Amino acid sequence: MTNKTKKRKKRLKKLQQEVADKPQRKTIRHNTAVNQEKHRVDWQPLEPDEDGLVADRRIMPRDETDRRADNVTAVTAAFDAAFDDNDWAAIADDTPYLLGVVVEVSRGLCKAEVDGRVMVCDIRGILTAEGTGFTNIVAVGDRVLVSLHEEERGLIQEVLPRRSGLARADSFDVHLKQILAANVNQMLIVASWLDPQFWPRLVDEYLIGAARNNLKAIICVNKVDLAADIGEVETAVSIYQDLGYPLYLTSADTGYGLDALSAALKDQTTVLAGLSGVGKSSLLSAMDAGLDLKTNAVSEKRHEGKHTTTQANMYPFSAGGYVVDTPGIRDFGLIGLHQEELIDFYPDIADYVVQCRFNDCTHDHEPGCAVQTAVADGQINAWRFKSYTQLFGKLSDLD
Question: Fewer C-beta within 10 Å: the chain N or C terminus?
Answer without folding.
Answer: N
